[in-house]
Here is the input.
Amino acid sequence: MARVICIVNQKGGTGKTTTAINVSARLANKGYRTLLIDIEPQANASLALGVDIHALKKTMYDVLLEEEVELDDIIIGTTTENLMLAPTHVDLANTDINLADKTDKQFRLKNKITKMRAKFDYILIDCPPSLSLLPLNALTASKEVIIPLQADYLSLEGLEQLISTIDKVRDKLNSELKILGILFCIVDRRMKMTTQSIDIVKEDFNKLVFDTQMRLCVKLKEAATFGQSIFEYAPKSKGAEDYGKLTEEITAGEENV
Here is the structure.
């Protein structure tokens, strides 16, 4: 049965989608059957994997809104062997309005994922930068959460709010939910603020902070522009090295999951 992991932060620009794409790709490279689910209305993960979202007949919008549409109906392959994608479209931005009167509105994604867990080893969910109904669905459907975080004070301000939301979801909707790790992204140690911010988080959440930190790497942005993971685009880059180490941390804990 697949480990279901969502990548969540209500703040944009934290490296969330980059993490979702490259961890998924690395897992696939290691031979794990991997599914990346894109529920970000900007469709950044889908676009960064080279998908023409306007040519898609059905997307995650249809999966979440239509009872008869399953994940199997929309999943497509990628240029990475073992990596499948459940793409999205900008229409997904209307999800909160369209699901508002549904009694199972927090469980729509979980219900669809449950039917697919036997087909994959890992299912990763890339969420929008908000705490709306879409990330709520992801938190309800997942067993584990990765929180990407920039090493600056503004990012730290929202961390407690996010952890509070995760605690509430655990109490009311998903008792199995746990934080897999807090991941520092776009780390530039030339800045004094970077070290100070990391130290603050480690003081409060030491055991929850990943050992691996994602160093600032221009190649990561370039890879997305070319519709590739960092392992395809620049396999010898700092970005590939760091996401490789992070994936080792994630898979090393499998026996405890």
